[in-house]
Amino acid sequence: MRNMRAEKAQRLSEYLDISVLPSQVVMAHSPLRMFVDLHEKHVLVVGQGPVKQIARTLGFKKVTSVDDLREMFPFLDCGDFSRRKTDFSKYVKPAFDPLQAIILLGEPVRWEGALQILSDVLLTNGDPGSLSYKRGTLPFPHLPIIACNVDLVWMAEKPLPLPRFGHGMFLHCLETIFEKQTGKELHYR
Predict the structure, then answer these.
(1) Which residues contact 63 (CB under 8 A, 6 or more apart)?
(2) What whole-number distance in Å separates Cα of residue 35 and Cα of residue 149?
(3) DSSP code for 31
(4) Each residue's pLDDT tens digit, 90-126
(5) Buried b (16+ CB within 10 A) or exposed e, 18-36
(6) SS3 89
(7) Around Cβ 189, how many Cβ atoms within 10 Å?
């Protein structure tokens, strides 16, 4: 993976017609380097692009993505009927260390599936494959959640100058789902 800060510095240099060094660029996820208390924990990383590589670059050691969970636990993401798995006769539960935190780098593709999986992770205290959830037994406080880019909307470029949903809108959906399911507030840093 090419350094994202270097690419951003190059684009800014060209756009502004001045020299911008990669060390001068702060990405939305750059502050995650400070969360050293989570760097050794098993984290679920959510967003688009090379999220696992980004997380590792920031210092996280044990990283799982939403796509990894879709592969390991194919019955979780069943909102899209074309992806729904119905034959579990050959399913073998994989060995899985429970997740200990959730890192939201940005809004994912396929919100409905990601929201379902995140909800499952929260309701099972990080072990979505355990299938041991019992209504009313939610551990609280829930797993730690760190969110980057909490803006609700962003402006699209021409020729479509309309506001587009941002990561904050995805986070708002997750908050609402969590509160409706549990009666409790979703907390994040």
Answers:
(1) 43, 45, 52, 55, 56
(2) 16
(3) G
(4) 666 778 899 999 999 999 988 999 999 999 999 989 9
(5) eebeeeebeeebeebeebe
(6) coil
(7) 9
End-to-end CA distance of the chain: 27
Cα separation, 140 vs 129, in Å, equals: 19
Span 46-102, pLDDT tens digits: 999 999 999 999 899 999 999 999 888 888 887 777 766 666 666 667 788 999 999
Structure tokens that stand for 152 in this block:
């609700």
Tell me which long-range contacts 129-132 makes (C-beta under 8 A, separation of at least 24).
Answer: 129/72, 129/73, 129/93, 129/94, 129/96, 130/98
Q: Which of 176, 169, 170, 42 is nearest to 97 (CA)?
A: 42
Please tell me the distance from the alpha carbon of residue 58 to that of residue 44, in angstroms, as a whole number.
14
pTM beyond 0.90? no
